[in-house]
Amino acid sequence: MSLDIGEEENAEKYTRDILDGGGRVMGFGHRVYKVEDPRARHLQLECEALGEQKGQPKWFRILSKVAEVMEPYKSRGICPNVDFWAGAMYHLMDIPKDIFICIFAMGRIPGWTVQVMEQFSNNILLRPLLLYEGPMDVEYVPIDQRE
Q1: Which domains does the chain have, with CATH numbers?
Q2: Which stretches of 21-123 are DSSP H helices?
Q3: What pLDDT, on the 0 to 100 scale, is given for residue 128?
Q4: How far apart are alpha carbons 38 and 45 in whole angstroms?
Q5: Could you give the CA distance from residue 37 to residue 74 in angstroms, rounded to a whole number?
Q6: Out of 17, 20, 30, 91, which one is annotated catalytic?
Q7: What is the DSSP letter of 28?
Q8: Which pTM was predicted?
Q9: Measured between alpha carbons, how far is 27 from 51 in angstroms, rounded to an integer?
Q10: Rounded to an integer, what distance in angstroms lies between the CA atom of residue 1 and that of residue 24?
Q11: Quick one: pLDDT at residue 109?
């Protein structure tokens, strides 16, 4: 999103265009944290510091402007979440864009695993739409050998 916005002065129009079009601004809201994602508050400070350290404070300023435009939505529980700041930090650390989602997921795997273990140990589904019913024990085929 920051790359699409490009410059701080474009952030307000970009954000308002999404909102006026009925869309959602990515990186806002959370299924559990209905007021503020406490992780986001800490990551925001780290994002600012990393931007300064790398000599690229513009990414933090762009996101800060988006957050400012989104401020009125806080009363409805739509606040920046941890991923809002993480993407800019990954960019500042020169992590390739095509593996951002993999990195987001890596931190969640322990929690997902414990949820599955809890579901099966109590014979309940905590999130019913997430029960995997596909084939099991499928042989792994490297991506360059797949058809």
Answers
A1: 1-95 (1.10.230.10), 96-129 (no CATH)
A2: 38-53, 58-70, 82-92, 100-106, 109-122
A3: 63
A4: 12
A5: 11
A6: 30
A7: B
A8: 0.74
A9: 18
A10: 12
A11: 92
| Token pair in block for residue 125 | 């589904």
Of the candidates 4, 20, 83, 91, the residue annotated as catalytic is 83
Which residue has 């989602």 as its token pair?
101
User: By three-state DSSP, how is residue 30 classified?
Assistant: coil
Both tokens of residue 72?
């009125």
- Torsion sign, CA atoms 57, 1, 34, 109: negative
3-state class of 114 per DSSP?
helix
Catalytic: 83?
Answer: yes
Structure tokens at 118: 């809890």
What tokens were used for 7?
């410059």
Q: Which residue has the tokens 């951002």?
A: 100
Tell me whether residue 42 is one of the annotated catalytic residues.
Answer: no
Q: Show pLDDT as tens, one digit a residue, over the chain (147 residues).
A: 999 999 999 999 999 999 999 999 999 988 777 778 888 989 999 999 999 999 999 999 999 999 999 999 988 889 999 889 998 999 999 999 999 889 988 988 998 888 888 888 887 776 666 677 889 999 999 999 998
In this prediction, residue 130 carries a pLDDT of: 67
* Tokens linked to 114: 């414990």
